[in-house]
Design goal:
The chain is α+β, with helices and mostly antiparallel strands. It contains 26 helices and 37 strands. Strand 20 and strand 21 (489-490) form a beta hairpin.
Length: 934
C-alpha cells in the first residue's frame, strides 16, 4: 500500500518526518533558526508542511490580570520576611488562647498589604491602558491579494504588512518593497535608541518590484532567520524566492533589511514587509527586559537586621518560657494565686507557652517598615525629577528616575566609572586639522591651509586640490553613510543646483563633521542614488558607483567602501582608528602621519586615519564573491564577514589623518574636582587613543597637577605585563602617600583581568584616578565588575550616554545615563538619568546625601522604637511571674506601628534637610562623612 501524506495519523507522522528531514538538510549545523513562509504561502512541493507556531503580536507589559491579581500579589508580598512573619503571628493568635486580640496583628497586616496592593494595582492598570492602545492600533495586512484592516494584536508571523509614512512598525518586519523604486526607505529609531537621524533600510533586489497588494498574489518566498535576540544592531537571515520548483533565488538578509517595531517610517510613502518576530519576541520587547533587579546597600543591611531580631525574638521567647517554669517550680514563690494550678509539664503545654510569648514579643519586628520605605522612596524620587536645578534648557530635559529602589545608593558612591565622549564632552564634533601626505593642514576661513613650521602669521591657503589632497578629500566625502537633505527634505537626483541649503545627517558625529568640512572646502556630497555617490569638486559633478560598504556594528574600529570611478577604476577607501588602519598600510607617510596623530592627540583632538588601495577587476570579482558568500552564511555570519573585511583591508596606502575637536561640557572640571574632594575615586573608560584620553583627563580635572602618572600600556605578553605591574606595585609601596594616576589600555587589560587580578586590584586601590583607553564595551563592564566584587566591597556608579555604555551601566550598583546625542538606550537602561554631566554633582552631593540620611535614620528609627516598645513588656514579665500577661491594651498594640510612630518618621523621611543644599555643594567632603554630622 502506498502511504500518502493525508492518510490519518500515519500520514501525519510521515509529513512530520519529511518536514524534519527538509529542515535538517537546509539548516545543517545552524539549529537556532526559524523558517517563515511569506504570506503563509508554501513553496512548490511543500504544500502539506505544517507552519511553525509563533507568539501572537500581543504586547503585555502588565504583571497581573483580574483573575490572578489577588493570589499573585499576595504571594509577592508575603515573600518579604516581615509580612510573612506577621502572617504567621496572626495564624498563631487565631490558633491558641492568645493573651491579646488577633486584630493586633491582623489589622496592621491587612492595612500594609492593602496599601501596597492598591499602589501596585494602580501602576499595573496604567500598564494595561498603554498595552491596549498598542494592541488595538489598526494595521494593514495583505490577504488574498487585498489589503485588510485589522488590529495590531492579530498580526501573525508570515503576514505581509503595509506601513505608511510617519507610522510605526507594528512588529519586526523583513522589508519586501517600498514606494521608492530603488527599494529603500528611511526610518527613525527614536523609540528604540533615541537617535533622531534618518537611517536607510532596503529590500532585496528580487522583491523591490512588488509594490501593490495584488502583485503579492503571485509572490512565493520563505525566510530563514535567527531566533529572536535583544541586540538591536544584528540580524542574520536569508530569503529564498520561488518562481517554480526548478527556479529559485537566494538573497542574504542583514540588519539593513529588518524594520524594527517601535521605529517610524519617514520620507517614504509606504513599505511592504513580512513579519518575522511578533509580540514578546520583537527586539523592542526583549530590550524592555534588559535591566535586572538591583538591591540597595540599606535594603541588604535591613534584611540582616530582620534576621538578627528574629534570632533575638527566639532567645527572648525561650528565656521567658524557661523562666515561667522556673517560677512555677520554685518552692518559695510557687504558682501565683491568680493562675490555675497545673503541676504537669507536657510538650503541648510548653509549645503553647512558647507561642504565647511569641505573640507578646512579636512587636519587635516593625510591620510597617516596608510600606513606609516604599512611600518615602517613591515620593522622594519625584523630588529628583521636579528639581529645576537639574533642568537643561538646550535639550528641554529634566532628570529622570527609572528605579526609586536605589535612591539612597546615590549617597554612598565610592567609585565612579564614566565614559568620555558625550559624557564628559559635548559629542559635537568640529573639524580642526588634517595631515595629508606628511603635511599638516588646518581649516581657516573656509579654506584648507598649510600649517607653517614657525606658526607665525596667517596660514598659507591651498587654492587647488591635486594629487594626495584631492584623493584625501574625496575619500572623506565618499567613505561614510550620511544622509543628504536639501531645504529640509531628502536630496533628489535632479536637485543639485542649490548646494547652499545642504544638510547632512549621520549616525556618527565624526562623519558629519568630516562631510561638513568637505562641503566648506568645496568637495560637496549631494547624496547617494542608485548606489552612486554624486560629488561636486573642481566645479564639476562626478559620479562614483558604490559597490560595497564594509561595516558591521559599532564595535568595529574602521569602516570602508568599495567604489568605481568614472574612468572604471575600482578603489577601496578606509577610515578608522590609527591603531587599526596604519598597521594595515604598506605604503604612504606612516611615520610622519603617526607623529602628527600624536600631536593632535596631545591637543585633546579625536583622530581618524584615512587610507585607500586600488583593486583590479579580477581582484574585485574575487572580493565580491567572498563578501556575498560570507553575508549569506547562517552560521557565525558576523565572524565570517569580519574576517573577510579584515582580509580585504590589507596592503593599503596611507593618505593621512583628520583631527576633530569635541569640547568639554560646561562644569566638568569643577564637577570632577568636587567628586574627588567628596572621596569618590573616578575612572574614565574610553575607546579613544591614549594621548587624546590623557590630554582630556588633564583638561577635565580627572588628572591634576602633582599627580604621578603611571602607565601600564602596550604590554604584548603576559610576562611583560607582569613585570611592569610589579614594578609599579613596588614604586607605590615605597611611597604610599603620593598621589598616583594610572593609565591602562584595552589590550593590557586582557592580561590584567585574567591572570593578574589580585596585584592589579591592589595597585588600583592605591591610585586616586584611573584612565582606561582603547576599551571595548564589554571591557567597560568587566572593569566595573572587577572593582564591585573586590575585597573592599565598595558601592559603584557608572555614567554614560551611548549604547556601548549599557553593559557598564547595568553592571554598576547605580547606573546613570546622560541624555545626549547618541540615543536613549543608555538612558532607558539606567537607574537615573539627566542631561549634563555637571548635574551629577547635585544628584550625588545633595539628593544622594539627603536620601541616604533619611532612609538610614528611618530604618534605624523603626528598629529602635520597636525595641523601646517591647522592653517594657519583657520587664513587666519578670514582675508578673512570666505569666504571659500583656502590659499594653490591644488598641494600642494595633495602632502603635501604623499611626502613632509611622506618620512622624514618614514626614521626616520626605522633608528632612539637616544641612542646606548650598553647604553640601560648597563642602563636598561632607558627602564622605554623612554620619558624623549628628
Amino acid at each position: 500500500m502506498k502511504l500518502k501524506s493525508n492518510d490519518g495519523i500515519f500520514g501525519l507522522k510521515l509529513k512530520n518526518i519529511h518536514r524534519f528531514i527538509r529542515k535538517a538538510s537546509s539548516r545543517k549545523s545552524f539549529s537556532l533558526s526559524r523558517t517563515v513562509f511569506v504570506g503563509h504561502k508554501h513553496p512548490p512541493g511543500s504544500e502539506d508542511e505544517v507552519e511553525e507556531r509563533f507568539p501572537d503580536n500581543i504586547i503585555v507589559t502588565s504583571k497581573y490580570t483580574i483573575w490572578n491579581f489577588i493570589p499573585k500579589n499576595l504571594y509577592e508580598q508575603f515573600r518579604r520576611i516581615a509580612n510573612f512573619y506577621f502572617l504567621c503571628i496572626a495564624v498563631i493568635q487565631l490558633s491558641i488562647n492568645s493573651p491579646v486580640s488577633p486584630l493586633t496583628s491582623l489589622a496592621p497586616l491587612v492595612f500594609v498589604v492593602t496599601i501596597t496592593a492598591v499602589k501596585q494595582g494602580y501602576e499595573d492598570w496604567l500598564r494595561h491602558k498603554a498595552d491596549r492602545i498598542v494592541n488595538h492600533m489598526h494595521v494593514r495586512v495583505i490577504k488574498n491579494g487585498k489589503i485588510t484592516r485589522t488590529k495590531s494584536q492579530n498580526i501573525q508571523v508570515g503576514d505581509i504588512v503595509k506601513v505608511k509614512s510617519d507610522e510605526e512598525f507594528p512588529c519586526d518586519l523583513v522589508m519586501l518593497s517600498s514606494s521608492n523604486t530603488e527599494g529603500v526607505c528611511y526610518i527613525t529609531t527614536a523609540n528604540l535608541d533615541g537617535e533622531t537621524n534618518l537611517k536607510v533600510h532596503e529590500c532585496l533586489p528580487e522583491t523591490r518590484d512588488y509594490q501593490t497588494a495584488e502583485s503579492f498574489s503571485s509572490f512565493c518566498a520563505s525566510i530563514e532567520c535567527e531566533e529572536p535576540t535583544a541586540n538591536l544592531y544584528t540580524f542574520i537571515g536569508r530569503m529564498t524566492c520561488y518562481k517554480n520548483i526548478q527556479e529559485t533565488s537566494v538573497g542574504s538578509l542583514g540588519p539593513v533589511n529588518l524594520l524594527l517595531k517601535g521605529a517610524r517610517l519617514k520620507n517614504t510613502n509606504f513599505i511592504y514587509g513580512c513579519c518575522v518576530y511578533s509580540g514578546p519576541e520583537t527586539k523592542l520587547s526583549l530590550n524592555l527586559n534588559l535591566t535586572y533587579n538591583k538591591f540597595s546597600t540599606v535594603e541588604r543591611s535591613m534584611n540582616k537586621f530582620l534576621i538578627f531580631f528574629l534570632v533575638l525574638l527566639a532567645v527572648e521567647v525561650t528565656l521567658a518560657t524557661g523562666m515561667k517554669y522556673f517560677y512555677q517550680n520554685d518552692p518559695v514563690r510557687g504558682i501565683p494565686w491568680y493562675l490555675p494550678v497545673d503541676d504537669s509539664i507536657s510538650a503541648k503545654g510548653v509549645l503553647s507557652d512558647l507561642l504565647v510569648f511569641v505573640v507578646l514579643f512579636n512587636y519587635i519586628i516593625p510591620i510597617s517598615l516596608y510600606v513606609t520605605i516604599e512611600m518615602v522612596k517613591f515620593t522622594g524620587s519625584l523630588f529628583l525629577t521636579w528639581d529645576a536645578e537639574l533642568y537643561d534648557s538646550s535639550s528641554n530635559e529634566y532628570a529622570k528616575c527609572n528605579s526609586s529602589d536605589l535612591n539612597e545608593e546615590l549617597g554612598q558612591v565610592q567609585y565612579l566609572f564614566t565614559d568620555k565622549t558625550g559624557t564628559l564632552t559635548e559629542n559635537d564634533m568640529v573639524f580642526r586639522h588634517c595631515s595629508i601626505d606628511s603635511i599638516k593642514y588646518t581649516e581657516f576661513s573656509g579654506m584648507l591651509c598649510k600649517v607653517s613650521e614657525s606658526q607665525e602669521g596667517n596660514p598659507e591657503p591651498l587654492f587647488h586640490y591635486v594629487g594626495a589632497v584631492e584623493n584625501f578629500l574625496l575619500a572623506l566625502a565618499v567613505c561614510n553613510t550620511v544622509q543628504t537633505f536639501n531645504n529640509g527634505s531628502l536630496s533628489q537626483l535632479n536637485n543639485f543646483h542649490n548646494s547652499s541649503n545642504l544638510e547632512y545627517h549621520a549616525s556618527s558625529p565624526d562623519e558629519k563633521a568630516l562631510v561638513d568640512a568637505c562641503w566648506r572646502l568645496g568637495v560637496i556630497l549631494h547624496g547617494v542614488f542608485n548606489d552612486t555617490y554624486y560629488v561636486t569638486f573642481k566645479g564639476k559633478l562626478h559620479k562614483f558607483e558604490r559597490l560595497h560598504i564594509l561595516e558591521f556594528d559599532f564595535n568595529r574600529k574602521c569602516m570602508s567602501v568599495i567604489i568605481r570611478n568614472e574612468e572604471g577604476n575600482i578603489y577601496l577607501l578606509c577610515k578608522g582608528a590609527e591603531s587599526t588602519v596604519i598597521s594595515k598600510c604598506v605604503s604612504g607617510p606612516k611615520i610622519e602621519t603617526l607623529a602628527h596623530v600624536n600631536d593632535y592627540a596631545l591637543e585633546g583632538l579625536r583622530v581618524l586615519v584615512v587610507a585607500h588601495k586600488q583593486l583590479s577587476e579580477a581582484e574585485f570579482q574575487n572580493v565580491d564573491i567572498k563578501i556575498k558568500t560570507a553575508r549569506a552564511e547562517m552560521v557565525d555570519r558576523e565572524q565570517k564577514v569580519l574576517r573577510v573585511f579584515d582580509e580585504i583591508e590589507q596592503n593599503m596606502t596611507l593618505l593621512g589623518a583628520t583631527a576633530v575637536e569635541d569640547r568639554l561640557q560646561e562644569g566638568v572640571y569643577d564637577t570632577l574636582s568636587a567628586l574627588k574632594e567628596a572621596g569618590i575615586k573616578v575612572w574614565v573608560l574610553t575607546g579613544d587613543k591614549e594621548e587624546t584620553a590623557i590630554n582630556v583627563s588633564y583638561l577635565s580635572g580627572h588628572f591634576q597637577k602633582g599627580m604621578e602618572l603611571l602607565k601600564l600600556v602596550c604590554q604584548r605578553t603576559s610576562s611583560q605585563c607582569h613585570k611592569k605591574l610589579n614594578k609599579i606595585k613596588v614604586l607605590i609601596e615605597k611611597e604610599p602617600l603620593k598621589n598616583y594616576a594610572l593609565v591602562v589600555d584595552g589590550h593590557t587589560l586582557t592580561f590584567l583581568l585574567s591572570e593578574l587580578r589580585d596585584n592589579f586590584y591592589k595597585v588600583c586601590c592605591q591610585c586616586s584616578s584611573v584612565l582606561c583607553c582603547r576599551m571595548s564595551p564589554i571591557q567597560k563592564a568587566e572593569i566595573v565588575k572587577f572593582i564591585k566584587n573586590g575585597s573592599e566591597k565598595v558601592v559603584t556608579a557608572a555614567v554614560g550616554d551611548g549604547a556601548n555604555d549599557v553593559s557598564m551601566i547595568q553592571e554598576a550598583h547605580v547606573g546613570l545615563g546622560i541624555i545626549g546625542k547618541e540615543g536613549r538606550q543608555a538612558v532607558r537602561c539606567s537607574d537615573f538619568a539627566f542631561a549634563r554631566f555637571r548635574f551629577l554633582l547635585r544628584v550625588l552631593l545633595v539628593h544622594g546625601h539627603y536620601y541616604y540620611i533619611r532612609i538610614s535614620t528611618l530604618v534605624q528609627y523603626f528598629f529602635y522604637k520597636n525595641i523601646a516598645f517591647i522592653i517594657p513588656q519583657a520587664y513587666f514579665a519578670s514582675y508578673s511571674a512570666f505569666s504571659s500577661q500583656p502590659i499594653y491594651h490591644s488598641f494600642y498594640l494595633m495602632f502603635y506601628n501604623i499611626f502613632f510612630t509611622s506618620l512622624p518618621i514618614l514626614v521626616f523621611g520626605l522633608t528632612e534637610q539637616h544641612l542646606s543644599q548650598k553647604l553640601l555643594l560648597n563642602k563636598p567632603h561632607l558627602y564622605r562623612f554623612p554620619l558624623f554630622l549628628f
